[in-house]
Design brief:
Layout: H1 2-6, H2 11-48, H3 61-84, H4 89-94, H5 101-137, E1 147-151, H6 160-168, E2 173-178, E3 191-196, E4 206-213, H7 217-220, E5 225-228, E6 241-245, H8 246-252, E7 261-263, E8 267-274, E9 289-293, E10 299-304, H9 310-323, E11 330-333, H10 334-342
Parallel strand pairs: 4-9, 6-8
Antiparallel strand pairs: 1-10, 1-11, 2-10, 3-4, 3-7, 5-8, 6-9, 7-8
């Protein structure tokens, strides 16, 4: 700066040089950032189960990028432009330039802020990376893959069972279950308290969920029965039977719960124990849960044989439209809903 001022450069020339260089650096940085975002977007969408795209065709996208780069470049170059161009050439060339305590404190503060920001961003990136790995690799205790949820099936009324039978006959379908109670946030819940039958008041009641399901629920969702069995149409007594999870068996104090009786508003006989599975988001512990045979017909879960594909979805929708033309059923991919739930 001292040499340039000595040979006749004005302060305005130096300010223009600094601002121009700063804006050019900013533009180059924005171009690199946008290109990296565009290249890495497919990988991000795959990991986060999103469908984000770069809005190249929107008229305001490129102007906003350019204006943002220009504004940031100007702000980044203002301070060094006016500060460095204000030095007197004589002092600079003689080496007598004193920055001063105030400017030194400001510079140190800016450096500390920059490194603090970098550290925070690095830590945040590592946390997000670990959280994404946790979400993708966490064993939920049930099989959510290849499952579609048909909503609004209660509109079929007494034809819901017929709809289920027609779906089971499709070669693309392996299992079908009718129940509003699913291990997915936003579906039906029913809290109750259970006690051992015949126990006195000294035994506390165990708060638990009681879900009404059909005979194919456990098989369709891939729940693991660790003791006993699931529901079967071969046993007439299963209308008063109950299947509980391991958490509920533990809280009731049963070492061998099979054949034991528990009650809420009626008496139930335990025929099976399920391995614990997550039916809320992963921020919360697994609660006691009981399954009984019952009617909850507004949602039908369909497990497909060869993965989620448009042909299978179209076939299911055609069957739904033929059975209830006024209100066509809405079909959503469970996989997308489940990932959304787990990220909340």
């Amino acid at each position: 700066m001292g040499l340039r001022k000595t040979v006749g450069a004005f302060k305005g020339n130096l300010v223009s040089q600094f601002l121009t260089e700063s804006v050019i650096y900013s533009l180059i940085s924005f171009v690199i950032g946008v290109l990296l975002t565009w290249l890495l977007m497919p990988s991000f969408n795959s990991i986060a189960n999103k469908d984000i795209v770069m809005p190249w065709s929107v008229w305001w996208f490129i102007p906003i990028i350019f204006i943002s780069a220009l504004i940031i470049g100007l702000f980044a170059g203002l301070y060094p432009a006016f500060y460095l161009s204000a030095f007197k050439p004589v002092n600079v060339l003689k080496g007598n330039l004193s920055i001063g305590s105030k400017s030194g404190s400001l510079r140190s503060g800016l450096v500390v802020f920059q490194f603090t920001t970098s550290v925070v961003l690095i830590i945040g990136t590592l946390i997000i990376y670990k959280q994404m790995n946790f979400i993708l690799d966490k064993k939920l205790g049930f099989d959510k893959e290849q499952v579609l949820v048909v909503q609004g099936a209660n509109l079929l009324e007494d034809r819901a069972l017929t709809f289920k039978e027609r779906l089971q006959n499709l070669p693309e379908v392996t299992d079908v279950t009718i129940s509003d109670y699913l291990p997915l946030e936003g579906t039906k819940r029913n809290g109750n308290s259970f006690r051992k039958t015949g126990s006195g008041s000294e035994d506390r009641a165990v708060p638990a969920q009681i879900w009404r399901v059909d005979y194919d629920y456990i098989k369709t969702l891939g729940l693991n029965v660790s003791q006993g069995r699931g529901f079967s149409k071969d046993f007439v007594s299963d209308s008063s039977a109950i299947v509980i999870n391991a958490k509920m068996a533990n809280q009731l104090g049963f070492e061998n719960p099979l054949g034991k009786k528990i009650s809420n508003s009626q008496e139930w006989t335990i025929i099976g124990v399920l391995e614990d599975f997550h039916f809320k988001n992963l921020k919360e512990d697994i609660d006691p849960l009981a399954l009984v045979i019952g009617n909850a017909p507004s949602m039908i879960s369909v497990k497909l044989a060869n993965g989620i594909n448009y042909d299978a979805i179209d076939t299911i929708e055609k069957i739904g439209r033929t059975m209830f033309q006024r209100n066509p059923l809405s079909i959503h991919s469970w996989i997308k809903n489940m990932h959304k739930c787990m990220m909340m």
